[in-house]
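Regression check, magnesium ion case 924:
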Amino acid sequence: MTIAIETHGLTRQFGDQTAVDHVDLQVNTGTFYGFLGPNGAGKSTTIKMLTGLLAPTSGAVGILGLNPFDTDQAIEIKRRIGVVPENLSLFDNLTAREYLTFVGRMFLLEKTVIQQRSDELLALMQLENEHKKLTLEYSHGMKKKLALAAAMLPNPDLLFLDEPFEGVDAVASKVIRNTLAEFVSRGSTVFLTSHVMEVVERLCTHVGIISAGKLVQQTSLEILKQNNQSLESCFLEIVGKREGAVETLSWLDHKKSSPEDANDDSQPGLESSQP
Amino acid sequence: MNLTHLRTITWLRWRIIANQFRKIGRGHQILSIFLVVVGFLAAITMGVSGFAMPLPILEKAPLSIYLLIWAGLSMVYFTAWAIGVLTDLQQKEPLTLDKFLHLPISPTNAFINNFLSSFLSFSTVLIFPALLGFAGRMVAMFGMRMAPIFLLLFAFFLMIMALTYQFRGWLGALMLNKRRRRAILSFATIMFVIVVQIPNMINMAYQSSTSTNLEELAETDSSPVLEELRASQEEFDKWLNQFSNGKPPSDELDRRLEELTRLTDRLPVNLTATELDLDSASPTDPRQQRLNSQIIQLAEYVRLACCIIPFGWLAIGIEYMVVGQGIHTVLIPSLCFVGMLGISFFSLRRAYKSTLRLYRGEVAFNDNSTKAKQTPGSSRPTWINRLSEKKFPLLNEQQSAVTGMTLISLLRAPEAKMVLLSPLLVILLIGGSFAFRNAENIPVSLRVFGGLGAISFTMLGIMNLTNNQFGYDRQGFRCLLLSPVKRVDILIGKNAAYAPFAFAIGAIGLGLMQCFIPMPIDNFLATLVQLGTIFLITCLMGNLMSIKAPLAISSGTMRPTNINLSVATIHILLTLLLPICLLPTLIPPGIDLLVNRFIGSTYVPIDLLLSLALLIVTLVVYRFIVARQAGLLRDRESIILEAVTHIGS
Ligand SMILES: Nc1ncnc2c1ncn2[C@@H]1O[C@H](COP(=O)(O)OP(=O)(O)OP(=O)(O)O)[C@@H](O)[C@H]1O
Ligand SMILES: [Mg+2]
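Current build output:
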């Protein structure tokens, strides 16, 4: 079994802050890898380094056996991966089809192939009727779907997805999940971050949990199942145990006892806020 | 009106400024403090100098000088204010109101707060003190009867604030649609550039007409007094010329000048030279005399304009306070005051009503209903769509893809269009009027250099785009980095996209030159060839700037969001360097000129042949350098990515 992603002591600092701290990842080919962690843990920073968008402060990265920070190998890697970055990578002034055409040509795909794949992808993402809109005018979820379509267009060996389901509606989300599952079953690899435990649990074969920049857990879901542990409880156990953490709001249950509070917003002028 | 809310929102604005200040670098902080201090000092200086600046012209000039001064001050103030509003529109999202409309705040509060906060600006701080100072000076000069000048000033200030506030709200509402927003911004900027040019053009026209000493004015104006004045002046000039070396006899001079003054007094303006002047130095100075009649003449036009445009009512009101007779000293200024106040009132009321509509949700902030109807099914691609698939000659597949993408973006983004058009406009507005007047004076053999200059000038517009090629991609630059493409292909593809614009605009500029200042045909063709050389050099400079000093440009504007000292320095230095890099283009016409001068006409199109050779050399050099630049791009790509995706404050 070959290794798709491998890092050794991967570290990235922003000023004094260490966003990613000596992370040693290992993801085998053909796995569906879920990368979890609370907000600000360093997931997106890790993905940026894996895809060559951000240079690590120290540490080594291997993607499909190649080094993304070597000029010649980087192009070879990019030919074989697809990425949905954190802030996407759309051009404001292109339509969806133009954008896909552009990406396809950059991957040196045949014109007819691009055409056919774009049609299918746009239909899959339910964007086929939006051909007049510029991506500038897309909604958040639409942008996400278009970025995903662009990432899948060249049929890569390895997909990096930073929160691909965030903002995507339930119908599209299901279609995308099925597509990704099929993608992995054919031997490709997916590396995704998500905050939705159910999705990760249903899709992924392996998970890694990062907290405050450190990789605190890397395991296969099989093992979790054998231990009779749900992913959520595992995650909460690792990440959620903070000393003296505030878990309830002290004033929440006083609401009904003081009716003035409920009418607190009866400021002058607010009456007119109802058209 | 709830004071707590007002305080809170003021606090919020203050926090935002303070936090932004904290985030910027140390050098930038010092610079900002320095600027604030300088601004403060400048405000005081402006106020004081408005009050106390020695203006010798005031002593000797006719009283209509005050009309001119006040009209000028109003114009300057209005211009500065308009620039402020325009930059504001480009920098910020329109209608900050929506940020706190979901909070329990009354519409009156929101409105007043927004209105008040629009006061503080560069123009208010810098130029208004000068107006105040000058008003104080007038009170000191003419006594307390001038005191109401401050009321007029207040009404003027309020009117400008209210009008622009309403204008801003109106634009803001229009701009809720993103596409339209960008179009409006570009259009407004172009209009503004043109409007700002108007005084310049009037000035030019005026100068050319006064330069021949009232002659033309008299032709355009049928007033008989003016005819007479012109005749007397001519005669006076003739008489004066006899004594060009010695001193003219003083009693004769006095007599003639008095006659002239009498004529001047009879001008319909019914203004006189100041009482001070009549018996002292002024009339003995013929230059002063001539200047005075020009002032009176100019005041005629300005007065008419000021009556029509409300922004001029301040000047009108003040003039009548100074020179009016009887009831007019009170009536006209009062009318101006009431008029300006009325305008403020009505525009504020309208602005308030639209705030109220927003508040009630009658107008949505993200209104998409105005968008073009989507017609599913009819997906016939337009020629712009097809650009994305086009294979361009001389370019490989990936270069073509980059070129196509960039072309589409350029064609769709109105900001790009206006950047491209602006040098042409400038050529038309300034260069044109200058060049046309002196066209015959330029020797034929030198005109080719003028052509080169015109082309280089149009390149400045292209350079606005090429010097920040990745800035307009924003998040899209990430896509370029993630594509399996050699960096050199990205650079070449990008550069190629600018070529059609460069050639079109350059050719138009050159064509215009050719129409008015024709050069020999072989020189003309050679200059067209040089266009290619100049473009390639511009691209190389642009690449260097894009790589070394990338700027984030927020969508729909041309404003960089992350400009700092070092980036600005690089941009300025490299822009200054461009003319030096373009010097080799002078070689072919230079040699041509020398050969023709010293050897004689050769019937060989030397310029053309050498230009072609130079173009070929430049192409080779271009390939060589662009490959080096690609290495640089590779090294700096993550820095560039961070810079161009920077979301500004
Ligand atoms: N460009 C940057 N400059 C400074 N700090 C940064 C930068 N990018 C990320 N960070 C910091 O690094 C840490 C990790 O950020 P990262 O975006 O990787 O988190 P994340 O795990 O993706 O979070 P989320 O789940 O919210 O997306 C955060 O504390 C963030 O503030
Ligand atoms: Mg993230």
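Comparison notes: Residues A 14, 19, 37, 39-45 surround adenosine-5'-triphosphate (ligand 1) (CB under 6 Å). Residues 389-583+624-645 of chain B form one domain. No diff flagged against the previous build.
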